[in-house]
Structure formats: C-alpha cells, structure tokens
Amino acid sequence: MADIYLVGVGGQGIITASRIIGDAAILAGKNVIMSETHGMAQRGGSVACTARIGDVQSPLIPDGSADLILSFELLETLRAMCKANRNTKVVSSSEKIVPLSVSTQRLKYPIAEQIGVEVKRVASEFVIVDSRKLAEDAGAPMSSNIVMVGALAGTGATGVDRKHFEEAIGANIPRGLDRNLAAFEKGFRVTAKSGKA
Amino acid sequence: MRNFEDSWKRYFHYVSNDFATMDRVLDATPGSKVLLLGNEAIARGALEAGIAIATTYPGTPASEIGDALARVAKDAGIYFEYSINEMVAVEMAIGAAASGVRALVSMKHVGLNVAADALLTFAYTGTRGGFVLVTADDPSCHSSQNEQDNRYYALLGGIPLFEPSSPQECYEMTKEAFAVSEKLELPVIVRTTTRVSHVRAPVIVGEIMPGLKKKDFVKNPERFVTVPAVARARHLVLLRRLGDAEAIAEQSRFNKVMALNGGGERGIVSSSAGFNYAYDAARTLGISAELLKLGFSYPIPRKLVSEFLRKHRTVAVVEELEPVLENELRALAQHESIQVKILGKEDGLFPRALEFDQAIVERGLARAFGLKDSVPSDAPAPSEDIPSRPPVLCAGCPHSATYYAVNKATGRKAIFASDIGCYTLGVSRPHNAADLLVCMGSSVGTAGGLAKVNSQPVVAYIGDSTFFHAGIPGLINAVHNGHKFLLVILDNRTTAMTGHQPHPGSDRGPSCCDVTPVSMEEVVKGCGVKWLKVVDPYDIKSTTETVKEALAQPSVSVVIARRECALIAKKDEKGAIVKKAYIDQEECNKCMTCIDKFQCPAISTKDKVQTIDESLCSGCGVCVQVCPNKAIKEAK
User: Fold this and answer.
1) Among A44, A75, A167, beta carbon nearest to B387
2) Which residue of A has its CA nearest to B381?
3) What is the spatial distance between Cα B230 and Cα B32, in angstroms, rounded to a whole number?
4) How many structural domains comprise chain B?
5) Residues 570-629 of B with CB under 8 A from A
6) Is residue B420 part of a domain?
7) Does this complex have an ipTM over 0.90?
8) B309 and B407 inside one domain
9) Angle formed at CA A7 by CA A44 and CA A52, multiple of 5 degrees
C-alpha cells in the first residue's frame, strides 16, 4: 500500500505524470486508484492528484496519511504538508513559480531554507530535485515532470519496478522516448541510493 | 534500445500495427485491463453498447466523455457532435433514439437544468433505441457555480438511475443502462460526481458491438406527439414502467449486500462516491457491518431495501449532498412499519454540503455506531501565511486586455454582468469584472434587469461559446424591449475553460466531423442589434475608444473582442518568433500599474523589482501599452 500525493501548478504536466505512474502500477500487476484536478483549477492554480497503490476503494488521501509527497513546485510542497506525517517522504522540485498573490497582495514567497525547515518539522525526509536543470541536461527541457517521475521511482516507495515506469513512459509519450528516458534516469539517480537499479 | 512498442502492445493486448494512432478508449482489446478515467470508461461502455450517436456540450467534470468520443468517432463509425447547448444535445439524442438506434448524451450537472425540459417529457413518450444521459455532479463546486444533486431529476422525471462508484462501474453501468433503457423503453440517467468522473483506475473492458447505426423512423403520433390527450395516457405508461424498472432493480447485480469484517447487526446503505469512503472507513474502523451498495438506485428496490432494514437495528446512510436515499429509507420504514434506527444527515452525522472524504465518513460512522474514530485530530494545520494560488487568466489572455480596456473606458463605474467561462476569473482584482453571475447566458438577461433599475452604465460580458449556448434569446429580448446596455462578447474562438472544444462559430470541428462556421456578426445583426463593432483586444487604445463609443449608444450595443485563446495561439505558432516583453529597469519608476491594474502571470515582483518571465511571456504586447512610463518594451 502506497499513498502518493502529487502537487504542483496547473500546466506543469502533473496529469501526464500521474497517468504514467498509474500505467506503471498496472504493468507491475498492482491495483491503483487515482484522482485528478481538471477544469478551472488548471488555469495556473494549485493542483493536486493522488495515486493510491494497493487495496483501497476511495481515491482521496486523508489528511496526515500520505506515504510520499511528490511536488513539482516548492510553495506547493509547503501547502501539501497537511497530508504529511512523521513517516512521510517528501520529494520536491526546486522549481519556484511565484503566484500572482505575491505581487498583488505584497506577500512573500518563502525562501527555500524556510520551506526545508517546515517540511522537516512535519515529515521524515526531504529531497530536492533540480528538475528543470536535469531535464535540460537530458536534452528534454519540457520534461521536468518526467524527471520527477524518475525521482519517485528512485525512492522505491511505490513498489513498482523501474522497467515498468520506463514502459509506461513509452506508452504515454511515444515521441522523443530516448530523451524522456534520459530525463527519467536523471531523476531516478537523485533519490535511488544505489544510483542504478 | 528496448522495444517499447511491444510493451505498449502487451499492456493493451493490441493487434493494431499503427502504434501512433492507438487510443486506449477505442483500441483496448476485449479482456484487457486498461487505466481509464471514469469519463473515458463511460465512453468505452457506450461504444461497447453499440451507440450510433453521441452528443454533448462540454462542462467539467463531464467533458472527457465527449472528448474521448470525438477522438474516436470516425474510427468507431459513430456520429458525434459538440452541440450548441445541452438542450439541443438531448434533442439530437432523442431524435436518434426515438428512431431506434442507441444514443448517449453527456453533460455537467447544471447542463441538465438547460436540458430538463426535453428530458422530462421524453420520459413520457419513451424511447425505442437505448437512451442514456450522463450527468456529472460537482460536490464542493470544484469547477461549478452550484452543487445541486441531480439524483432529484430521476425522482422528478421518473427516470431510472445508475450511480457508479468507480471507473469499472462507469463502464459496466453505462453498458447496462443501455440494455435497461431498451428493455423499459425509457431514458436512463447515469449520474457521476467529480470523484467518479475524474478518478483513474484499471478497467477490464469487453468487446465493442457494431450496433445499429441507421433506422427508418416508424410513425406513431399517439405515442410520440405529446398533445395533452397523448401526454395523459403516456404518464400512466411511465408509471407502469417504473414498476417494471423497480423489478429490474431488485435483481440488479449493482444492488448488493456486502459483509464487512464478518457482517453483523450494523447496517450501512451507500451509493456513488460515498460508497468508497464508507468501505474504506469501515475497514479502518474495523467495524463489522453489512453494507448495502445501491448502484441502480432509482426506482429504489423496496423489497431488497426493506429486507435489509428489517435485518439491522441501526442503519447509517452514507451519501454525498442531498439525503435522497435517506429520505426514501425513512419513508419505506414508516410504510412497512419496520423498527429500525436510520441515521444520516437529519441527525447531523454527515454534512449536506461539500464533498466527503474518508475522515468525514469515519467520524460519521463512528458516531452512528457509538465507536471511537481514529481520525488524527493533530494533523498538521496548513500554515496560514502560504500565499494563495487561485486559478488566473493566462499570460497573453485576450480577456485580460479587454477587461483592462473596459475598466479604462468606464472608469470602473459600470455594473458588470458576467457569465460562465475562463473570463469569470476576471472577478478578482485588479479587473473586478463581475458583479452578478448565475448561469450560462445569464449576463445578457440580467443586464437588461440591471439596466432597467440602475442609473449606472451596465456592461455584460459573455464568451463566444456561451453566447451561442444561451446568450442569443437574451440579446433578442434586449433589442425587442429596448434595454440599454453594452454586451461585450469575449470571442477567443473556442470553448477554452473545458479543454478547447469547438463551438458553432469555429471553423474547425472535432477531427471526426465537417462543420460550417456560423458568423457571430451575422447572428448579432440578425438579433436586431443596430450598433456592432469588432475589436482586437490586444489594441488597448482602439478597444477603449470603441467601448466608450458603444456606451454612448441609445440602445443595446455589442462589441466583439476577438483574439484567439493564448494557449491555442501558442500551440499554433510553435517555432514562430515572438516579441517578448521586458522591463527596462532604468525607466521603471515602480508605479505598479502593470501589477495593480493589469496583472499578468508573467510579470512578478522579485526582490522588490518587477520583472517579466520570458518563458511565460506570450508576446501579446499589452503590458507595453499599459505601462505609463514606457518602461516595458518589446524585445527587438
């Protein structure tokens, strides 16, 4: 049983990422149920998807009970802490997308260190992934989301083999597969202890 | 390199050779397990049922049903259309189903308000071919203006109702709904919610039946023409058929009793998304209970439910939104003189507003059965000073430019009647472009009422798709009755909010179909409007002046602010040179006009300096016109 909470900003490719995770789970022979944000909230707003791998019926993850939080944006990482507990692993992109409210309401976007302190106060582990740079290094600048899928796979939290993730990437994004697999690999290495599985 | 085509095929058991054009809704092989969105599962179920025709008007959370069918219609050999509105979508489906083919029509919950007139009387005439209407409710108003419970339409119209809880059930119940519809000769409703339609899970699919695609209409006015004499007789037929429907519901495999943790005296009755939470919550609580899951929930199978009530001393009803099942159960217990404690919303165990989650249901069930719940009370509260991130109008959105220009022209002294679409997001500052909004098309009608009793100028905003959907009668009414207001049609050439579906003004239809674009100008003029101008909202000066001129007219005036949705333009112009804007910091005097009066997601304040994020800038050039100090410049 693994409850993965995916958060970020509309337009970051989170639905594609969650579909890949779901396909990978099916390829691995596991049950999976996911919920997604569609419609109005996608216009640059906060979005949250869930992926629950295992024997459950309901798609939503109760507060304080995510096993892993995969965040595509730093501020959203902070917002997702309501789903965390002492055993939650948090994997976050270093990407910062400043919400309009920061400018219009003269608010402050918290500094990364502050976010790190807050996350570590609530959760067990905090890994930051420089997804934008890693995607560029892989020759796939649009594939930050695939880097994050790699980072999720690298944690081993899903119990899904790496090869199933790779197959699922091929199934969902047939074009530019080599580059996307390279992006996946970059993310995988950040969180995988052994480097290569 | 490994061959991923093979793994893709293995996953879906595909036999097709054309890897690139495979679609998981259409091409998944019978018996295979495929990850589908609830909405996609409905589309697959309808295809397997052999539909000849599918219609819709897009609306969250139902849109992906139509989008999936639009994608595959040509290959599946069915007719699909994005209709002008839900009413016409239902009428299209009625015409086909009354002839004898199977028809699917899908919409969001409030769409059924628009279509109800057609549906409720169609229940009287009944259908020949299977007729299934999917309505997707939106508890918590994720993307809606209300959270009405459309199960009431089943009760109101005497229309059999299915309530799936999962993508697998979406698929199975849609198929079954067609069979039931044909058997009873009645329309059938499949009602989902956001957490059913937008849930993705494995679905084991079956075979796509070819189905009947053409039929000769057999005339029978004594049945299909609802003059009063016919309607009176047909109402009695409907009531008789509801009795038949109940008999089917008694036997339906979608109505079943499940023993949780060995079963016992405690009873739970649930349906739709509520079932998922009830099931998980009961397991977390470790309570032994029997759970009656109602999938074919109207007409309620009275025998099955009475038996269940008799067997249990306490029964908790877990359903989102309205106490529909709860009230039916209470009525049944009273009628059958069953001694049972029925607990639900009336007892404050479950809320009547907003969607459920497992914690809500866990607490409710624990209270119902006198147990302690395990919901942690010390879940970390989200820090209050996290800057909010509501959805916003995109960088380069032509609506932002229009709002800026109209605010300039009116000095913000007008009353703004707004409508349903992306542009409703203009309600927040700095545009404050919405003062009244109730439903699709309401801007035009309410503007007339506002103008009659207020002395301020009135501006109505409506999108292009919404104008075609429900704005036209309001405009004719305004012309005929002499209302004076300005209607601004925000024409971005698409139905943007729901995923860029076409509308009657579009020159491109879905890939399956040829369409004829309908000229908005001709429609407006045809409504009798005497003063009409078309502007490019990216040209702030000309838009502002045109709005001033329009407001000075003695009768209703129309400005069409036409510019393609920035997201589509971005896709179309891939690779083209875009003149991005930048802020010349030496000339910027921090007046904050760009932030406080215009607002673009690409412009932000970092370390007290305003900058433009080049990766977000669309090159629309509007901020260049907005800056009073000419500090914002276009890159050469």
Assistant:
1) A75
2) A82
3) 48
4) 4
5) 595-596, 599, 601, 603-606, 610
6) yes
7) yes
8) no
9) 140
Tokens representing residue B149 in the block: 């419970």
Collect the ranges in chain B with pLDDT lower than 70. 1-21, 376-384, 575
Which of B546, B572, B598 is the C-terminal boundary of a domain?
Answer: B572
Q: In this structure, what token pair is assigned to residue A55? A: 């024997």
B395 within 8 A of B616, measured Cβ to Cβ: yes
Q: Is A54 on the interface with B (CB under 8 A)?
A: no
Instruction: Report if residue B109 sits inside a domain.
Output: yes
For A56-104, the pLDDT digits (tens) are 999 999 999 999 999 999 999 999 999 999 999 999 999 999 898 888 8
User: With left for phi above 0 and alpha for psi between -120 and 50, is residue B258 left, alpha or beta?
Assistant: beta
How far is it, in rounded angstroms, from Cα B2 to Cα B6? 9
Architecture of domain A2-191: 3-Layer(aba) Sandwich (3.40)
B201 and A33: CB-CB below 8 Å? yes
- Indicate the Cα dihedral angle B483, B486, B487, B491, nearest 10°: 160
* Contact (CB<8Å) A82/B389: no
Contact A63 B5 (CB under 8 A): no
> Please, which residues 17-36 of chain A have a Cβ atom closer than 8 Å to chain B?
18-19, 22-23, 26-27, 31-36
What does the block give as tokens for B113?
Answer: 């308000």
Given CB atoms, is A1 within the 8 Å cutoff of chain B? no
The alpha carbon of residue B382 is apart from the nearest alpha carbon of chain A, in Å, by 6
Q: What is the dihedral of CA B487, B488, B493, B496, to 10 degrees?
A: -100
CB contact under 8 A, A171 and B429: no
Nearest CB to A39; choose among B276, B498, B599: B498
Sorted by sequence, the CB contacts under 8 Å of residue B39 that are 6+ apart come out as B61, B62, B63, B64, B65, B68, B136, B170, B192, B197, B198
